[in-house]
Design a protein that fits this description.
The chain is α/β, with parallel strands linked by helices. Helix content is 49%, strand content 10%. The protein has 17 helices and eight strands. The chain has helices at residues 17-26, 38-57, 63-71, 96-109, 125-129, 163-175, 191-207, 213-223, 230-237, 239-253, 262-269, 299-303, 312-330, 335-346, 352-359, 361-373, 383-390, and strands at residues 7-11, 30-34, 73-76, 87-90, 115-118, 138-142, 152-157, 179-184. Strands 3-2-1-4-5-6-7-8 form an eight-stranded mixed beta sheet, with helices on both faces. The longest helix is centred in the first third of the chain and has 20 residues, at 38-57. The protein is globular and about 65 Å long. The structure holds acetoacetyl-coenzyme A. Residues 19, 58, 60, 121, 144-146, 148-150, 192, 195, 227-228, 233, 237, 241, 345-347 line the site of acetoacetyl-coenzyme A.
Length: 398
């Protein structure tokens, strides 16, 4: 059993890995970053060096600290260099064939007591664990983008994870200055299972011509105070990553809410992946964003735009609150866990359970019924909400 984790390896220095490495190095771990070839390795190294230089320029890190951090970091293209690591974190592309090769190597190379962690957001941790000879020592450490900033890490345990592995992982996450939330191995875990269908719904609203991309983003930032509108956030995370999450949610739950919007699938097929490819819903290639056409079926025509009418923000948010109630009703997560996950993983000013309680169960169920009557909500009201409404209770925590 590994008593203390000091030497950490990270395989994959892409969008997520390149943010995760900085956290480990800054928290005092001896750290080895592994990439597939020299070019990718160089990108990872440059990313870390630039980020540290920025922190020094902002006065958030001294030059001595910067030197000490860089002194603890090694970059390599050989997984064999992880032979004495206590913990390896994998952040490679979300394909089982790639994970299979990485975990076969990690299992062979690292000492038998070492912990193997995956940052997967769309594959089953249990299936990944089963690829190794030490399934009890495999765990999910699910970080959020941008990894240096978002404070949540979901700690995903499977039915065979050894209790001390979970405790050790929790200590590591705390040492990184992050907040751990323990979750079971279910599609999307807590945060993505709630966030991603809401993002996908925003795509469907856009695709149906109910609003422009700017109107959708502004509705959410101004009405709900979320730090980013859904389409801007999708461009940050990567449309391919989000489509993968939608597809596993669909496989596991088979509800209309989890069917990927056709436009999302087409954009991914066309290589419009967001910031990382230079274009997603917006253009990041330096060209001006092309002017948006007017919506072809503005929401106001369907539901009116006077006082008391359904707003664009309600259309996007109220089904999101319903998803949270469903998850809590399923017993997968508590209202507190849902709220911590959404505040610290996605920067929401308040958690979804808190927002739901503020609006009230009656208001939420009535709005869902109005949306359904307008053909804008095709899923069911969460059984927990229906039950609370019947009991005359207006909050989840009542
Ligand atoms: N990398 C490193 N640091 C970054 C960064 C990045 N990509 N983006 C922003 N920052 C830092 C800035 O440098 C700044 O740091 P200082 O305070 O030290 O100056 C700080 O974050 C705040 O940045 P800004 O003032 O530029 O911008 P902001 O206040 O608007 O915050 C944000 C930016 C933190 C990204 C915020 O918009 C936010 O919280 N957005 C929501 C992000 C989110 O939902 N993430 C989860 C996505 S889902 C996921 O990742 C899981 C999955 O599996 C798909």
């Amino acid at each position: 059993m590994v008593e203390e984790i000091n030497k950490v390896g990270l395989v994959g220095l892409g969008t997520m890995g390149a943010g995760i490495d900085e956290g480990f190095a800054r928290a005092g771990f001896t750290f080895t970053g592994v990439e597939i070839d020299d070019a990718a390795l160089e990108r990872g190294r440059t990313h870390l060096e630039k980020s540290l230089a920025k922190a020094v320029a902002k006065g958030k890190l001294t030059e001595d600290e910067q030197r000490a951090i860089l002194g603890r970091v090694t970059f390599t293209t050989s997984r064999d260099d992880l032979a004495d690591a206590h913990l390896a974190v994998e952040a490679v592309p979300e394909r089982l064939d790639i994970k299979r090769s990485v975990f076969a190597d990690l299992d062979r190379i690292l000492p038998p007591a070492a912990i193997l962690a995956t940052n997967t957001s769309s594959l089953s941790v249990t299936e990944i664990a089963a690829l190794t000879s030490r399934p009890g020592k495999v765990i999910g450490l699910h970080f959020f983008n941008p990894a240096p900033v978002m404070r949540l890490v979901e700690i995903v345990t499977t039915v065979v994870t050894e209790p001390h592995v979970r405790e050790t992982a929790t200590q590591v996450v705390t040492r990184l200055g992050k907040t751990p939330v323990a979750v079971g191995d279910r599609a999307g875990f807590v945060a993505n299972a709630l966030l991603v269908p809401y993002l996908n719904h925003a795509v469907a609203v856009y695709e149906q011509g109910l609003a422009t991309r700017e109107q959708i983003d502004a509705a959410i930032t101004s009405a709900a105070g979320f730090p980013m509108g859904p389409l801007t956030l999708m461009d940050l995370v990567g449309l391919d990553v989000l489509l993968d999450v939608m597809d596993v949610l669909w496989d596991e739950f088979r509800r209309p809410r989890y069917a990927a919007a056709p436009l999302l699938r087409r954009m991914v097929a066309a290589g419009l992946l967001g910031r990382k490819s230079g274009r997603g819903f917006y253009d990041y290639s330096g060209a001006d964003n092309p002017a948006e056409p007017e919506p072809t079926a503005p929401l106001a025509q369907l539901v009116g735009d006077g006082p008391g009418q359904i707003s664009l923000a309600d259309l996007l948010l109220v089904p999101h609150l319903n998803d949270a109630a469903r998850m809590i009703g399923d017993g997968y997560a508590t209202a507190d866990d849902v709220d911590t996950a959404m505040r610290l993983g996605c920067g929401y000013p308040k958690g979804l359970a808190a927002m739901l309680d503020e609006r009230g169960v009656k208001n939420v169920t009535e709005t869902l019924a109005e949306l359904a009557a307008a053909g804008l909500f095709t899923d069911d009201t969460a059984p927990l909400l229906t039950m609370l409404a019947k009991q005359g209770k207006d909050t989840l925590r009542s």
